[in-house]
Amino acid sequence: MKQSLELYQPYKDLNAEFYEQAEPAIFPFYKIRYKNINFPEFTNLDDSAWIDLFGKFKSNLLPESHNLALKYHGHQFQTYNPELGDGRGFTIAQFYHNKKLLDLGTKGSGRTKFSRSGDGRLTLKGAVREVLCSEYLHTLGVDTSRSISLIETGENLYRNDEPSPTRSAVLVRASHSHIRIGSFQYQAYHRKTENLEKLIDYVCKNYFNLKSENDQKLEFFNEVVERLAMLAASYTVTGFVHGVLNTDNMNITGESFDYGPYRMLEHYDLEKIAAYFDHSGLYKYGNQANAIFWNIQQLASIMTTFIPKEQLVDMLKQYADLYNRNLQILTFKRLNIAMKSEAENLELLNSFYELQTTKHFFYEEVFHDFKNFLQNYDYVSKKYSSYSFLKEFKKFHQVQEVNSINENFIRLFYDDIENIWNAINDEDNWSLFDKKLKSINKIREY
Question: Which residues are catalytic?
Answer without folding.
Answer: 248
